[in-house]
Design a protein that fits this description.
This protein is mainly alpha-helical. The protein contains two helices and no strands.
Length: about 80
């Protein structure tokens, strides 16, 4: 025990340290509990303004190009590729 510190100061410092440690423990537990509850709440709650998506995307459509259209498309790709 330091000579220049009274017993009351040591008891007071010990009490403040224990109170600070208890406060940190309680706040940490509260934040963790609230985070878990918030994650569960967000996962269970759907956005009411958006309808459920039944299908990921519409079916693909394909169109056969004529040889002239294929050449025009290839020229367009070459021209845009230069930029």
């Amino acid at each position: 025990m330091p000579a220049h510190v009274s017993t009351f100061q040591l008891i007071g410092m010990t009490a403040l340290t224990l109170a600070a440690v208890a406060w940190v423990v309680v706040v940490t537990r509260l934040l963790r509990r609230n985070r878990r509850e918030a994650l569960a709440w967000h996962a269970a709650r759907a956005l009411p303004a958006l309808p459920r998506q039944l299908q990921a995307a519409p079916p693909r459509e394909t169109v056969e190009l004529t040889p002239d259209e294929q050449d025009a498309f290839a020229g367009l790709v070459r021209r845009l590729g230069r930029r």
